[in-house]
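2024-03-11 09:14:02 DEBUG pipeline.ingest accepted 1 chain
2024-03-11 09:14:02 DEBUG pipeline.ingest length=167
2024-03-11 09:14:03 DEBUG pipeline.predict start
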Amino acid sequence: MRAVACLALAVCGTLVGCGGDNSLSGSVGDLFSLEVSRVEVQRNVQALQVSYYRSTATDVDLVVRLSVDTEGLELKPGTEVDLAGLTPSGHARATVVHLAAGEPARVFAPVENGDLVLDEGGNPGEPTRGDFSLSFKKGEGYGAGRTLGGRFSAVAADAGFGPEPPL
């Protein structure tokens, strides 16, 4: 019985060490805490956005917001999305921002390599689960040369612009 309890504890410790459904990891953790309290996923016809928040005693920090421009993509579960480079119209495929309370917003250096994969969902109202990993270009810019990875699980909110106003 004791052996089973020890094995269960070891497995649990391993799972926690690998991160839960909503977690961040990578060398950007040298710049700020990657601790996460909650995650929001938003989706419209132009983008998928995953926001990781951390509640403190007095504030809520936006730890990381990953925005993926979906121009020219069919975003569906199981499809690997390349986060590097530009969309067909010349916009960055992915951008990352950090905003801690009392500090200016920091836009990360361009993504050099990376991918995002949805395990399920991706549309407004659907439970959406997936992960991403990326590295930022070396050189200048916040987070340059560093890495970032994350897992997320949340119901995707509709980030649409609403109905057209009457003429």
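2024-03-11 09:14:41 DEBUG pipeline.report The helical segments are 2-17.
2024-03-11 09:14:41 DEBUG pipeline.predict end
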